[in-house]
Amino acid sequence: MLEPISGHCHLSTQSPFDWDGLLDYLGGRLLHGVAALHTIARDVADGSLDLSPGVDPQLVGEKLIAIHGIGDWTFQYIALRALRWPDAFTAGDLGIRKALGVAKPDEVKNIAERWRPWRGYAVFHLWRRLA
Length: 131
What we know:
By secondary structure, this protein is mainly alpha-helical. About 55% of the residues lie in helices and about 5% in strands. The protein contains six helices and two strands. Strands 1-2 form a two-stranded antiparallel sheet. A hairpin with a 2-residue loop joins strand 1 (about 1-5) and strand 2 (about 10). Helix 4 (about 95-100) packs across helix 6. It is flat, with a radius of gyration of 21 Å. The two termini are about 35 Å apart.
């Protein structure tokens, strides 16, 4: 925050923004992400989670989404990359929405229906359009 002093401006140590709250939020998000990655790594290592290409994405999705910190976007991305599921589709992805020029994930889903069962390839093309 800039405060005038004798006609000059200087940075104040007081901020109208809640930096501590932001750091707590980001730290919490980071810890959830780290814990989720640890859980995935442990489950892959002990054989209770198989992320090999061709594994049934429905079964993997159920296991992944049950892990705190993993949602549909992460599952779809893992299905696209690790499982090589050609129909994995991250409809809520901001980049995909931007590339298609729509605001809502439901609009993306409606557009992408005609690409089944190859929506995963469309994801790569849409992301590339943004590069």
